[in-house]
Write a structure and sequence with these properties.
Two copies of one chain form a homodimer. Chain A is α/β, with parallel strands linked by helices and 720 residues long. In chain A, strands 4-5-6-7-8-9-10-11 form an eight-stranded parallel β-barrel, surrounded by four helices. The first copy, chain A, has an eight-stranded mixed beta sheet with strand order 16-15-17-18-24-23-22-20, with helices on both faces. A four-stranded antiparallel beta sheet of chain A has the order 14-26-27-30. In chain A, helix 10 (243-273) runs parallel beside helix 11 (294-300), helix 12 (325-340) packs across helix 15 (468-485) and helix 13 packs parallel to helix 14. Chains A and B meet through helix 13 and helix 15 of A and helix 13 and helix 15 of B. Chains A, B: Belongs to the glycosyl hydrolase 35 family.
Chain lengths: 720, 720
């Protein structure tokens, strides 16, 4: 087998782009006698890779006695036998040796003796109590010592089976859903030993020293009077919104993310030392967490690939039972984040059943889920799970049988989900050009990764008129949702990068908070100066990334601070769209040289203006919205049209969302009906000459994604 | 037209049971020239009644100048013309003269001058600030003075058009969704003038005097040292879970609900004084709020009917886009609450479109919604809205056109939703016997109305191992959801009533908190003593309704207090069901004479036992669950089977929920697929002789409710 490589667009084998179709398959749950049979079934359905956890819990039930091998008849500990079987079936393997796994195992797959006998390694709350018995402090020296011993046994086995050694292991994943077991149950880890509180050479004091240089600078930034870095302890995650407290809490999160990256580096180094030469992968537990991995991506560089998990329901705690448009929004921004981080968007846990029997995960919904992920950029995935079986005795957290409603049942029965996956796999394998295709866009939406990292350290607005978290919600539930309903074709850019600044072909929408990095503000100024068309809403930044006053963009625009409207009843009319529905609104004097575009009717206060800078133009819109009304579609269109929008797609109903993907030669339009009722839609695609190509009328069943491949001579207008 | 009457089972005309099919139709939005045409369309679709707000805002734009009549060409203020038109079309009318309405009108339909010029009438927070500019303090003397003036004009008009006066008005609704505009934005109203804080003859001090008799008793109950009732101010809605503070907060809510009932009594008295002789109706804003109207129901007696509003989505803030099984749970307990309060379950706002264009309300989903409501007990409804139109200038809160995606569009276009409603209306009119049918049950679930009233005054558990709110969640998301998935047929009983105590035909499941009314505890004892079969989980009450120590039930059972399990990992096996999934678990010594039924396996601690009392039996189950796993179905069945369950229905999949309704002669089985994928189901019904009648296999489309009418000779086993 040849090594699987990847670039920023797709996986490749021997330079040929391929789609990765992996299936989770646990040798410790599936009886050994069924391995080959089920692997062949997976291959027959189009799969090319398997993934498995290697649970520490199962292999070291007593401390110091690590057991691997075929001694159990059912193969519970026979990792080598499993890797051998995969290789014989011609399937690649993604190996996941932990240390932590979850997988609904007791203590998340960590040994009981570790969690019970060594409480000091636990991830801790600020008050020193443990977050959860299965939450460990990643960099605690004693935990690392135990991990090193575990890796010293498991890694050499894996090293024997990597692709370069003639085996099937194409990728190795360190840990699993890092940070989830801290943040879901509490917040970041404050284990004092790990973080080195109170020690000048402690991890956190060193981080602060690196950031502030001197304790005086830190005290100035925090409004404190610490004697030294050792005593500059973190503060509670309160709602207090004074800049110095937001800054202090943000510092701790920056530190925490960096410490998790340090852990990842240690794990990778250890694995390399034992001869594992595959690229490393890791999965963010959900789209909201992707942004927490920026430090790790930088530390690990090109030998690492971050993917995400895209569940839509795992129990009654979830909002939606099926992959709805709200799910599609998550899929879209998650895939776009991964793309912008330089990875082919990979979904390492794509729902294939659920750890809960109810609400049920249904085959038709699953197919809609897969096709939606594909439509919005997925370049490879791992079905979680392809098949299950009984948990090793005492190891199951929920029930004793880990069935998951998987495509292949625990008695080898083939369920309808199997045929649905085969249908999807066949589709991607027959359209493998799609892995080099990208989404065609007619306007851009900015993503500020910091917006997605802020909800825990900047919860409440306080005196701030608009927070990062609010801007992030506006991006997703406002402009992005409105755009899909209006059959516009947004693509995302990362404000932290330079790559978008020189591209002035399509307008850019920025949902801004009062805080934006100084460099990002400068980039927006450069963009407009070079002829770029910008819409910024609902405020203009007044602070930089560290909450220090910074008005680079506002000064360039000649704008005063935006003021939050205080009237209980307001009526907003912008660009001819009357009484458009909004959440918060802001007003501001129209800057010198700008043209007023909108007004709050009861007060006559201006709430939108436009100002030109040569070919460039900036529109400020003092209005936030969550998509709910047709008027919001009209407003977004009106603003973009003013800025030269050349629309790529038309869909006759907001019920059907679209995604146009092209590799430059071949193109495909995805039509998504993510509602529980059928719908008839007429769709059109814009040609380069500005005329519309009608794709006719179609009736889509409930929860149905359909595709239309366009003739080779159709070339689109702009924004490609 | 003849008066519409109602008893505790259905609406009646001249003694004949009928189904009320009303449609919301706003004369102030629909142009006058379209009234008759659209009314005829409604009638052609099977409707027999219209409902309309009469917005104070529209009729008294300037204080003191109340305008009614046909002066506007569009009929915006022509109430009489509208009532005349309805009468000519043979349609009844539900008149809703406010004073408050909402209906997405500015200030909820209250005049701007009222909300802007008289801030003292506002509902207030504990700190004296206004809750919201549209939230009024119902009993504020100045507000009542203005209401009396408004009613003095509007009520005589309505009185001329009641059915007994030869007009169409069958019901009059006072106000709308009472309490919603307080509780959604803050909590109960603390307007000091209204509530009489600080005055011995104030409303709240009098309430306290009535409850405690002397200030010493109050101080003893609160742990305070108030000099008199006047100074016994309410306290903040904190998380503090000390009994004396829960008690004090609960007192304020009891007082608040009573004050709203007092307001309702005043409004009704005023309307009666002006000659309105119809029964009065009111709509609870949602199922969660039904329990807040117990005092009102008692005050108003038989001349009053409470209904509820059953939306499933009105915007992105809602959890689900379509009527899912979770929605069915809400419908079920809401209808059961209304039935237990003595009313034919009426849904005064049954979704017919939405105030948001997105997420869309789709015709197929709507039909599933209507049929689900019918399957679970609805006896009459009002489509909100049947048709809309432009808001009167400046009166619209969201957009200028109040279209709502209604069945009849604002240009008289007939939308698919119209035909769906016709289909539903035809169904109920052709099966009008269903209005005298009730749900056949094979076991009972207790409802303690106080559980549904507690979330605001008893938010956190504190030292309490189990709160009212947790017991309520367990009821809905645990046992009730499991029961429907297992195709069991639960019906609900009201613990506060006596009617269920002597009925020992089916087992009773009680989800209990640490608090239960002393009378209710006594009833449970009497029930078991008379041979009743009881399951109580996850704790036994240790306090009465006022949080005073009270162990009537526990002492009868000879049980010690249940102790919350503290192990991080637990494994529960009960009645042979191994490792059943649970949330919180409790253990307790097995009382003398009881048989142990379940154990936590790691510790060996007992978590379930059963004790017999003659024919009666009580099972304690120290386990809470939210439905997620098949094992939970098995556990519920095993417990009920032990208590003599005679199951009424079998459905071959948890995806299809059932409801069997019978009037004793005719019977119908409803099969509900409230998922977005189709499903094939085999269903069976139990006959009196214990054999099963197979109803064959059916494939239900996504979001489809189907019915099977049973042959007349099928008689069911038990529980009727």
């Amino acid at each position: 087998m040849q090594q699987i490589e990847f670039d920023n667009q797709s996986y490749l084998i021997d330079g040929k782009p391929i789609y990765l179709i992996s299936g989770e398959f646990h040798y410790f749950r599936v009886p050994k006698c069924d391995w080959k049979h089920r692997m062949e079934l997976f291959k027959a359905a189009g799969g090319n890779c398997l993934a498995t956890y290697i649970p520490w819990l199962v292999h070291e039930t007593e401390e110091g006695n690590i057991v691997f091998g075929g001694t159990d008849e059912d193969g519970t500990r026979d990792l080598e036998g499993f890797l051998q079987a995969a290789q014989e079936c011609g399937l690649y393997v993604i190996a996941r040796p932990g240390p932590y796994q979850y997988s609904e195992l007791k203590y998340g797959g960590l040994p009981s003796w570790l969690c019970e006998n060594y409480p000091e390694i636990g991830a801790m709350k600020l008050d020193g109590s443990r977050i959860n018995h299965a939450s460990v402090s990643y960099l605690h020296p004693l935990f690392l010592e135990k991990v090193v011993r575990w890796f010293a046994v498991v890694c050499p086995i894996l090293a024997k089976f990597t692709v370069t050694s003639g085996g099937p292991i194409a990728f190795t994943q360190f840990d699993n859903e890092l940070m989830g077991f801290h943040l879901w149950f509490y917040g970041p880890d404050y284990n004092p030993v790990t973080m080195g509180f109170g020690r000048e050479d402690g991890r956190y004091p060193l981080f602060l020293r690196n950031r502030y240089g001197s304790i005086d600078h830190l005290n100035e930034a925090y409004g404190t009077d610490f004697a030294d870095f050792a005593s500059a302890l973190p503060t509670e995650l309160t709602d207090d919104a004074r800049p110095e407290l937001i800054r202090r809490r943000k510092d701790y999160f920056d530190f925490y993310y960096a410490s998790v990256a340090e852990f990842a580096v240690l794990l990778c180094r250890e694995m390399r030392a034992h001869g594992i030469d595959t690229p490393f992968v890791h999965n963010s537990a959900n789209p909201n967490m992707n942004a927490f991995f920026k430090e790790m991506a930088e530390e690990l560089g090109g030998d690492f690939l971050l993917g995400s998990d895209h569940y839509y329901n795992l129990g009654q705690h979830w909002d939606q039972n099926n992959p709805t448009p709200q799910y599609a929004i998550k899929v879209f921004y998650s895939n776009e984040m991964l793309r912008l981080m330089g990875y082919p968007p990979s979904i390492f846990e794509l729902p294939s059943g659920s750890c809960s029997d109810w609400p049920p995960i249904l085959p038709e919904d699953s197919l809609a889920c897969y096709m939606t992920n594909l439509a919005l950029g997925m370049k490879g995935h791992n079905y979680y799970i392809f098949t299950g079986g009984p948990n090793p005795p005492g190891a199951g957290l929920t029930t004793d049988l880990y069935d998951f409603g998987a495509p292949i049942g625990t008695n080898n029965e083939i369920r309808p989900l199997y045929y649905v996956q085969k249908e999807y796999n066949d589709f991607v394998l027959h359209n493998e050009w799609l892995v080099r295709a990208e989404r065609a866009g007619d306007f851009r939406i900015a993503i500020d990764f910091e917006h997605a990292r802020s909800d825990k350290y900047w919860k409440a607005a306080g005196d701030f008129s608009y927070t990062n978290d609010q801007a992030w919600e506006f991006t997703l539930k406002g402009v992005m949702t409105t755009a899909f309903c209006a059959s516009l074709s947004p693509v995302m850019i990362d404000l932290d990068l330079e790559d978008w600044v020189a591209d002035i072909t399509t307008p850019l929408f920025v949902a801004a908070s009062l805080s934006m990095g100084a460099d990002n503000q400068r980039r927006l100024v450069d963009f407009v100066k070079s002829g770029g068309k910008l819409i910024i809403a609902p405020v203009l930044p007044e602070y930089d990334e560290a909450l220090r006053p910074c008005r680079i963009l506002a000064d360039f625009l000649g704008a005063k601070p935006a003021i939050r409207h205080q009237l209980p009843v307001t009526r907003a009319t912008v660009c001819g769209v009357v009484n458009v529905s909004k959440e918060r609104i802001f007003h501001q004097d129209v800057p010198h040289g700008a043209e007023q575009l909108g007004v709050e009717e009861f007060t006559g206060l201006p709430l939108s203006w436009s100002k030109r800078f040569g070919e460039g133009e900036a529109i400020w819109l003092g209005m936030e919205w969550w998509h709910s009304m047709r008027e919001q579609e009209l407003l977004l269109e009106a603003l973009l049209q003013r800025l030269g929008l050349r629309r790529l797609v038309q869909s006759s109903t907001p019920q059907v969302w679209t995604s146009l993907r092209t590799d430059g030669a071949r193109s495909m339009l995805f039509l998504m009906n993510l509602h529980s009722s059928p719908v008839t839609v007429e769709s059109k695609v814009s040609k380069a000459d500005g005329s519309w190509l009608s794709l006719g009328e179609r009736t889509l069943a409930a929860m149905k994604v359909e595709t239309i491949e366009l003739a080779h001579d159709v070339v689109f207008g702009t924004g490609m």
